[in-house]
Structures are given as structure tokens and as C-alpha cells.
Amino acid sequence: DTTPMTIETSVPFTSHQCDTPSRSVETSPNELLTFFRDMALMRRMEIAADSLYKAKLIRGFCHLYDGQEAVAVGMEAAITKKDCIITAYRDHCTFLGRGGTLLEVFSELMGRKDGCSRGKGGSMHFYKKDSNFYGGHGIVGAQVPLGCGLAFAQKYSKDETVTFALYGDGAANQGQLFEALNISALWDLPAILVCENNHYGMGTAEWRAAKSPAYYKRGDYVPGLKVDGMDALAVKQACKFAKEHALKNGPIILEMDTYRYHGHSMSDPGSTYRTRDEISGVRQERDPIERIRKLILAHDLATEKELKDIEKEVRKEVDDAIAQAKESPMPDSSELFTNVFVKGYGAESFGADRKEVRATLP
Amino acid sequence: DTTPMTIETSVPFTSHQCDTPSRSVETSPNELLTFFRDMALMRRMEIAADSLYKAKLIRGFCHLYDGQEAVAVGMEAAITKKDCIITAYRDHCTFLGRGGTLLEVFSELMGRKDGCSRGKGGSMHFYKKDSNFYGGHGIVGAQVPLGCGLAFAQKYSKDETVTFALYGDGAANQGQLFEALNISALWDLPAILVCENNHYGMGTAEWRAAKSPAYYKRGDYVPGLKVDGMDALAVKQACKFAKEHALKNGPIILEMDTYRYHGHSMSDPGSTYRTRDEISGVRQERDPIERIRKLILAHDLATEKELKDIEKEVRKEVDDAIAQAKESPMPDSSELFTNVFVKGYGAESFGADRKEVRATLP
Amino acid sequence: MSADPKVFLMGEEITKGLLEKYGPERVLDTPITEAGFTGIGVGAAYYGLKPVVEFMTFNFSMQAIDHIINSAAKSNYMSAGQINVPIVFRGPNGAAAGVGAQHSQCYASWYGSVPGLKVLSPYSSEDARGLLKAAIRDPDPVVFLENELLYGESFPVSDEVLDSSFCLPIGKAKIERAGKDVTITAFSKMVGHALKAAELLEKDGIDAEVINLRSIRPLDRSTINASVRKTNRLVTVEEGFPQHGVGAEICSSSASVVEESFGYLDAPVERVAGADVPMPYAANLERMAVPQIEDIVRAAKRACYRSVALAAAA
Amino acid sequence: MSADPKVFLMGEEITKGLLEKYGPERVLDTPITEAGFTGIGVGAAYYGLKPVVEFMTFNFSMQAIDHIINSAAKSNYMSAGQINVPIVFRGPNGAAAGVGAQHSQCYASWYGSVPGLKVLSPYSSEDARGLLKAAIRDPDPVVFLENELLYGESFPVSDEVLDSSFCLPIGKAKIERAGKDVTITAFSKMVGHALKAAELLEKDGIDAEVINLRSIRPLDRSTINASVRKTNRLVTVEEGFPQHGVGAEICSSSASVVEESFGYLDAPVERVAGADVPMPYAANLERMAVPQIEDIVRAAKRACYRSVALAAAA
Ligand SMILES: Cc1ncc(C[n+]2csc(CCOP(=O)(O)OP(=O)(O)O)c2C)c(N)n1
Ligand SMILES: Cc1ncc(C[n+]2csc(CCOP(=O)(O)OP(=O)(O)O)c2C)c(N)n1
Ligand SMILES: [Mg+2]
Ligand SMILES: [Mg+2]
């Protein structure tokens, strides 16, 4: 059912150096149901990853996105797969939004062959180049200049597409962001800097890390928009607006007011630097999935039962993918030496004991 | 003659997020004559350095400050030697302003023993710690966080003093500047960022390097002031204002509108990216020395002849210092291995041929 | 830190304990802006304070590396001794478990190549305590490379080490295990591997001497040299990339094995190092990418049996 | 560059000539923000363009080194081949004349240690032309270390080199001068020094073989090895700091002298390198801080006469 319908965002947009998009967002029953399903799937996937981590099937870092799903989903609804996305280490759901599969996610998380990076990247390094998802980056802030570089390439190639570079509130103070913004503004690059403000960088509250936590204004001479990042429709509206703006006028900043339910990574219980009340307050009042559920029910687009069924389906999908991922083998040991270079010219490479293990790079 | 007198700056200050200091500047005949003499000395020194460079007595880089003298001189008039200064590579006159001697300058430029860094630093690396001058830095922008660190130390030590960190318009886009500014604002550091806007970073005009060349506003949430940097009195007024502000409220930016007559360094004729008319226009209308000369004559504080005599004296001082510096020996070859560490614990260090030349670090 | 009020600590996500003990004036939580806060730390050191700058891991020190090299390491020299820089840069270095390519690099050889820096790398609790104190007291910039995986391990500690006056000398290696057949040099986590390898080698009748380098710069060339002159065989172990690594230096340093001890070597030196690839995530590949105890054992045996093997091959 | 429209150039103060030839769309003047524009360059390479990122000198690449290492070198590996990074980082490297400590560092050993990077260092016009073209055509990130002092020198160039199709292979060293008595390895400016040293040595009856490394990574271990097996003596020359340097690698590399050619060495290897100090400004000190021709001659003679000297000393 793609009948157009219009829904008002509950919070107005706040703008800096630019117009403000309308609060009335065009959508359709279909879109709302898709939002629901996609976000439910992301939520379920992240919760399953949590369990796999606790079962020691995932190692190292694992940064979960639950709470922030509306950003990934709303953004995708506004753009096409020819637009580029790049983000930090909290990348599972963004990857899914770009069309990545659960099997690829879980296999990568467990370091298996069927992972999107064949097990070589790990949790922080997901990519899907065929739909213009460029990672998955572990160095805070680095993805912002990289994203502006993608935007440069789009403009250079006259592709009439844009890049969304996502970063956190903690990353928003990084100097390279200001450097890249200046260059992007000078060169009118179609770059959209999306600050996912979940209000904490690890255990540090935004106001302890930033003198001015009004991230949508931090571009100074670059326009910005503050968006309710818990509302997929608001996100969609803002991203549409930003894409148009960027193609015409160059860079723009979107600050998404959002929240992560989980701790920063798996070693962080997430409750030492914020109160349980704060977390449950957000869950009750602003949860992105519940918001859409309410909308669907209010507009009679589906019954409660139908939505529960979707959730059940999603659960099964996730369980099946995990089962399949567990069957996926570890990468072959020869993979140690693949992909060091595209072209190795027959150079030698060495293992830890260089006389025992060495390879010729093709 | 220290009779107070008041002089109006010819250009008003422009402020960002703060009050504007009064255009009426308190001064005295004595101060004006000192300004004249000090600036004439700096000018002469830089012109002599130019000749020495052309005579191949100075090697490598040599960045001259002529045109910008009012900044060094006005700043010193507002502060004490307990306040810290740190700058980039264009550091000869700042060093002189802090009480460094001509002999130290010329000896360092020629790589001699009597240089302020015993010939080991070179043109870009002058220091005078006993009057809180911390260099002389060759990496564009690096001195800004360093300066904020000095300010941190002053506050930590409860010294009630401030730091002036000078940087160019080119440097003003550096990310580390924004990082340091955020931290300084969070911690209320008594840091004054002085952007010496001479309108070019090497051959690049400000507007080609910055989307927003309003440098006094680039601190966004940090206050700023735009100052006529060709007017020593305006500089003095602004620096006094900034010092008070910084001790009370933390960081502030001063943009000094100034001009360098010479090219960027000695290999730059300085005339390919700007017109000769532009240069001679500034010389005629805004020259910092001529402005003070006119003030002195207009107020009958000295005769034209007396001022010419000062210039003659200054010339002789410079010539004498050069003669003396030429007599200064090269540093002893043992200096190759001194000052690598303060404490070397008897570690070995090596020359190019390690079996021929090696040293034990004390 | 309690002894000298000029010492202060800054970095991201600093542990609550220290903050409570020394207060927010001396323990400063910073935003995620390494270049900015490192520059501020170095500036504070110019003024005469003694900052301890913490990186969450040394991978992030690359954001600030210009300040470590150009602002810290070179200042005392460029100023002919006017501006010394008493600062410590510390943090976990090298591979942790399962953190992938961007979070696993070892910076010992990079920082160890730079004149003006001191580079320390503790292995045991004794090292950590004694070397950190030495680093903080030192008037020069010190890069202090810790290892996340060692934070979890426990070591026996003597009373001497627990004494508040305990401190270790900079620039001196420690012979962790004396032996006569083969010298194994290592630092950080790899010292533990080398010691375990030595135990296994003992079962095969090989008596290995294990040197814990402790200081990468200055390198204790004389201790290494003396050992090699005794054992006539050398295995170097490190976690970092092999090319231009610490092992390469030890093998060829003039004051060291090849050049000065040239006449003494009975077998080619053996270098064990991280594999020459970015760190993979998958557990099986990761295991191949970092030196294992059996790699050290194998290399040591090769060094000891080499003359035989060569003869057999000929 | 004219061949492939995907190639573009970016950096500070780029020469007018190129701008006029290729226009402002393909030749981009950047602000002085190395981290920012390098990140942008790498991002553009992710997309499939072929950026040539120019640093005014490689000293300033430290501001952007995280992008070179973490964003460029490791991406192809981390993405299992999805995101390759066809980019060239170029600029003058190492000591120029009289520019002091912050502007004189050689980055060959640092970049050369990193898997995923290719590191080239031309000496002559032939090298510059052939290697730059190879670098631009290469699908992987290439660090291209030039030398300011060589820009001024002129070299004889053959017709072959001038041909528009001329290109050099990556990973191959060039024997600049064949000889039988001692192998001298060098790169960049030091190749010239080594060749001049060889001329002087010839007068003393020593026939030196001079190897121009050209590629620091991959290192052409087989060419070096073959030469050492012939001459039985090795002198390595570089301008950079000695510890963990290119010379250290050559001396100890398994495929190289010490390990594989162990049986072949008649004398300890000799390492000639920059002095182990920050670069001083004063002309006399600066001269001592970089290898001179006579240092190479002396080291080569020592290698050739070592047996004699040893005997005398014994
Ligand atoms: C340069 C750098 N410094 C420090 C870290 C360690 N670190 C990883 S995530 C993180 C917090 C980032 O917070 P934010 O940008 O708000 O993103 P969020 O995790 O909230 O999504 C830090 C400090 C890093 N990865 N890179
Ligand atoms: C990080 C870095 N990049 C590039 C350079 C080369 N460089 C030296 S000075 C300069 C121009 C700086 O201009 P500006 O900040 O306006 O200062 P000015 O020279 O005008 O005083 C450049 C690009 C450098 N020294 N450091
Ligand atoms: Mg956050
Ligand atoms: Mg300028």
C-alpha cells in the first residue's frame, strides 16, 4: 500500500544558516511497515550480537546500535544506493541498511569466511562497495574527511549523488572534521556530515567533551540542522532536505538527537555514567520502533498481532542466520597473505617465523 | 616623558561574542618614541637579514617580519615578561621584542656559537625561556596547542599570567587549533590566540584557503576581536583587553589585520600572487612605522631630524651586531651530540659512520 | 605522582580511581582530540610541569605524532638545552585480542628510531612500577609502551619492588633468565612468550638466556652483546611488523651482534616478529599474525642446530 | 596524468604549470590542512579515482599519517579486497640544506615498515619518471619519497626513458654500477654519494657494486642478496636515523645478507646513516649529521680490509 500520507514530526527542526524543512513528512503505509520491520530486525540483530559476545563467539570490540535505528532507516528512505555512506565502528545496522545480509554480519562478527570482510575486518570494519557503503572505521573522526573525499569523487565524476558521513558527538570535536569541512565548503562538495548525537562518547557526556554541544551549529559558516534522531520520518525529511542542499550548495551538517541503549562497547555496562532512569525514560518516551508502532496502530495500518508476527519472523530470521554463520568455516589460513596488495608483483611476505611461513604476494 | 596622552585608533575594533575595547588608547611620548625605535630596529634587522641571505651567509629558510612589526611591539607594551609568547617560524622580531639581542639573532641566522640556540636551531627556532618566549616552531599550527599548554601550566601554577599564541591566516584552518580551542574553553585557560592575518599563507590568498576568512569569528563559541594590526596602539589596546578577558573568562581570539612586505621566505619574490600596487599601497597608507612617525611629529614629540637620527643609530647597531656575529665561531663539533637529552645515562649515540664517530651522552 | 605536585595526568576516559585520589586539577579528562591535548601536554612541559599524557591506545598517538616528534623530541636540541620537555606519553601498544587492523599496531620501532625520545616497554609488574616512576622523574620525553593483555596478568613482586623508593634505571635491559646456549631478546608481552619458550627448550637440553629489553631507546647494546658473545646464537622476538623493526636493529647494530660480535656468531640470527600483514580479525588468522611460543622454540632450535642442518643440506 | 582522467593532483602551493595544463578541476590547491586533504584524497581513492596527494615535505605527512596508515594501507586487507586504495603520496623527504630539525626527517623506514604500503624512492630522472608513472598506475597506496636536493641536479637521460611508454617495475632495485669487491646499497640522494664513493674506491683498487634500491617496500631482497654473495661485503647507506633504519633491515633480513647469505660474509656489515641526533642548523654540524662521500669510502675500506685489521688488532 503506497498511498501517500502525511505525518507531522513531533519535534520541530532547528536550523543554522539555512531554511528549515517542513514538519509534515510524506510517507505511506508501506514505508511505515518497512520502517517497523527494518528497525525490528536491526534491534534483534544487535541483541543477538550481545548474546554471541557473552558466549565468547565474538571477540574484541563490538559496538551496538540499538536505540539509534531510526537514523539508519530514515536516511536510507531518503536516498539511493548510488549515494555513499561512511561511518565509524558502530556499523552493523548501517551495513544492513545498505542491503548487507544477516549472514554476512554474524559471520564477520564471529570471524568466519562468509563475513562481509571474510572474517578479516571484524565488527568495526564492514563494507559494501556495490551499494556504496565505505565502512566501518575504527579511528574516531577519520571517516569524516574520507566521506568528504567520496563526495569529492562524486562531484569530480559528475554523478549528481551525495555522501553521508556519520560520526558521534565525541568525534565532533576532532580537528580533522573542521579541516575537511573547510575544504568541502571551499569546493562545494556534496557532503552531508551526520552527527549521531547519542550524548555520550564512551563514558563522557557531551557537555564534558564540548564547550558547545550544539553540533548542528559547529560548522560555523556551514549550514546545519538539528533533527529528532529517534523519529525515522524526521530523519528521512532531513536527509532529503540535506541531499538537495548539498547538490546545490555544498556541505551541510545534520545533528541527529539519538540514544544508544547499550554501553559503548561490550566491556561497558553503560550504567556508570548515566542513570538507569535516563535510559528507561528514553525507551519509554522516544524509542524509534515504538514510535512507528504507535503510528501504524493509530492509522490502522496493521493490527498489534500483525506487528508481533513481524517481530517473530524477524527473530527467526536472526536465529537462522546465526545458525548458518556458525556453520561457516574460519577463513583459510592462506588468507593471512591475501589482500595485502591488489598487485604484489611477487614480493615476499613473512609470517611470525619467517623461515617457516612465507608467501609470495601475487 | 611619561605624561599620559590619549590617541584614537583610526579603525574601530570589531568584536564577536564579547565587548569591544575603546578606541581611545592611553599612551605617552616615551612609549611612542620607544615604539618608533623598536620597530625601526626590527625593520632594519630584517632588511639586513635579507642581505645576509643573499650573500649566502644565512642558509635554508628565512622568514622576515617587516610590515608586521606593530604586532610584536604593541603586544609587548600590553603585557609583562611573565606572560608567555609562542609563535611560528617568522620569529626574529618576536624574539627581539622579548629582550633577545641582535647578536643572538644574527649569530643564530648564520649558525654561530653566539646564536640564541648556539647555531643549532636556525631561523625558525629562536627561544628565550628566561622571558617566557617558547619559540619559534616550524610546523604550521603546532604552536597553538603548545601555547594553550603554556596557558594550562600558568593556570595550574596559579601564576595569574597569560599566553599569547601567534599563528598565521594560513594556519587558522588547522584542525589542531580547533581542538585546542575547545579544550581551552572547557578548562577556561588563559590563552590568547593571535591570528596575524597578513592575508597570504605563502602564495595562497586567505579567501582561497578559508571559506570564512573572518578569523576573529572562527572560534565560534569563543570570543574574538578584529584589530588593526598595523597600528601598535590598537594592538596594545586589544592585547590589554584580551589579557583581562583571558584571566577572567578563558580563551579569546585576536585577529590582527597586518601585512608582510617580503615574500614568504627567501625563495619567494612575493610578487607573483599579489600586485606591486597592493604592496606599495600598504606601505604608503598603513605602514606601522610611518604611522607612529606621523603621530610623533603631529604631537611635536620629536623633530624629523631626531627621528632620522634614531634610524641612523639603529642602523649602526645592526651593522655592529652583524660584524660581531661574523666573528662568532661555528659551534664546536662536539655540539653535534649535546642536548639530545638532558640526561643521557651514558647511552651511546652515533655519527654517520658509527665506527668512526660516536659519543656517550652524559 | 603524589611526590611531585608538578605531575599531572591527562587523557580520554581516565579511570575514576585516580580522579578521586588526586582531584580534577591533576587528573584531566580530555575530549577525543589527541593532537590538541598532546600539544597542550607538551606546552605544559615546556613551562616546567610534568604531564603524563595517556593514549587510549598508541594507535591513536598517530593523530598526535607530530607533537611527540617535532614538538617534544626535538625541542631540547633545537633550543640548545633551553626548552627541555619532561613528559611521559603512555598507553597500551601492540596487539590486543580481536581488535582488528586499526587497533593492533606496535609503535616501538617508530618511536625507537627518533633521537630525543626515550622509549620504554615494561613486561612485569616490577617493570611497570619501576620504569613508570623513572619515566615520570626523567627530564626528557618518554614514550611508555604498555600492553593491554598484560594488565590482566599477575606477576610475583618482591618487597623491594613494593618499596616506595623503588625505581628502575632507563637504558638497561634485564636478564630474566640466564642461559648459555642461545640469547633470546624480547620486550613487553613477548618476554613472557620467550620465558615459556625457554622452559620448553630446556626439555630439549637447550639452555636459553632471555633478555627483557625494557628500554628500546636507549637500547642496552652492551647487555645484548655480552650475552651473544657468550651464547653465540641470537633470536630476536617482537610483536611488531618485521621490516625496520627492533629485531632488525638488534641484529645489525654496530655495538651489537653482527658488527661487533661478528666473530662470535655460530649461526645466522633468527628474527621472530609479527607477520608482515595488517592484523586480521579472525581468531585463526590473528594467531598466525603474532608470534607464538612455538615460533620462538622453533627459531631457537634452528639457531642451535644450524651447523648440522647446513652440513646436511650441503 | 594525461592518459587517465581519473588521476588528479592535490596539495599546498602546487606549481602553476600543472594547474595551467590540467585545469583547476584536476589540480587542486588545498589549505594547510594535511589531515583533512589527505583524508579527502584517500576517500576519493576509495571511490575509484586516482589521487596524487602532494606534501610540501614529508615532515608534514605526520599530520596525516593516520590516514596513510589506517585509512589507506590497511583498507584493502580489512575489507578483504573490496576497498582498494589507488593513491600516491608524494613530496620531498629527508634533509634539505639548512632547514633545521623539524624539516629534515627521512620517513623511508617508517613507511617502509607498514604492510599494505608500497614505498618508492627515486634517485635519477629516469627513476623519477619511471617510478612515478608506475606509482600512479598502481592499484595500491604508494608513498613516493623524493629529494629536494635532487630536483636541482641534472641526469643524463636515454631516449628509452623519454619515450612516453617508459615505466619502471615496482619492487626492483637497479645495479647502478657493477663491481666485485663490496656491495653498497643506497636510495635517493645517497645513490649519488655511493657512486662518487665508488669512483674514489676504484683509485684504491676497490671495485664497488652500487645498488640503487628504488623500492624500499617491497624490498628487492634477491638483488641485494645476489650482490652480497658475489662481493661478500656490504655497506648500507641512508640519510635517515640509524636505529630501525633501512640499513638495519638490509643487514638482517632473512632473505638478505645475514640470514641467508650468512656463510658468504667476509666482514661485518657496515651501516652508514644519518647521525643519531635531530638535524642541527649550523653548516658544520649539519655536514656531520648526514653521510658524506668520505664516510662511505671509509666504511667500504673497512669492510674490505677488515680481516687484516682484525688480525692486527688480535
Ligand atoms: C582517535 C581515536 N581516539 C580514541 C578512540 C577510542 N574511542 C573509540 S570510540 C570512542 C568514543 C566515541 O564517541 P562518539 O564519537 O560519541 O561515538 P559513539 O561511540 O557514541 O557512537 C573513543 C574515545 C579511537 N577509536 N580513536
Ligand atoms: C603542517 C605544515 N604544512 C605546511 C608547511 C609549509 N608552510 C610553511 S609556512 C606556510 C604558510 C603559512 O602561512 P600563514 O599561516 O599565513 O603564516 P605566514 O607565513 O603568513 O606568517 C606553509 C604552507 C608547514 N611548515 N607545516
Ligand atoms: Mg556518542
Ligand atoms: Mg599569512
H and E order of chain A: EEEHHEHHHEHEEEHEHEHHHEE
Number of helices of chain A: 11
- Rg of chain A, nearest Å: 21 Å
Specify the oligomeric state. Answer: heterotetramer
Neighbour order of strands in the largest sheet of chain A: 2-9-10-6-5-4
> What's the CATH topology name of the largest domain in chain C?
Rossmann fold
**SSE topology string of chain C:** EHEHEHHEHEHEHHEEHEEHEHHEHH
GO molecular function, one term (chains C, D): pyruvate dehydrogenase (acetyl-transferring) activity
Keywords (chains C, D): Oxidoreductase, Pyruvate, Thiamine pyrophosphate
Protein name (chains C, D): Pyruvate dehydrogenase E1 component subunit beta
EC number (chains C, D): 1.2.4.1
Fold blueprint:
The complex is a heterotetramer, with two copies of chain A (362 residues) and two copies of chain C (314 residues).
Chain A lengths: L4 E4 L5 E3 L7 E4 L1 H26 L14 H10 L5 E3 L5 H6 L4 H8 L33 H14 L6 E6 L6 H12 L4 E7 L2 E2 L2 E2 H4 L14 E5 L3 H18 L2 E6 L18 H11 L1 H11 L5 H24 L20 E3 L7 E3 L2
Helix pairs in contact in A: 1-2, 1-10, 1-11, 2-8, 4-11, 5-6
Chain C lengths: L6 E5 L4 H7 L4 E3 L4 H14 L2 E5 L10 H9 L1 H4 L9 E5 L15 H5 L5 E3 L4 H13 L4 E5 L1 H4 L7 H4 L11 E4 L4 E5 L2 H15 L4 E5 L2 E3 L3 H11 L2 E4 L8 H7 L4 H4 L9 E3 L10 H7 L3 H21 L1
Parallel strand pairs in C: 1-2, 1-3, 3-4, 4-6, 5-6, 8-9, 8-11, 11-12
Antiparallel strand pairs in C: 5-10, 7-9
The structure holds thiamine diphosphate (2 copies) and magnesium ion (2 copies).
One thiamine diphosphate (TPP) sits at the interface of chains B and D.
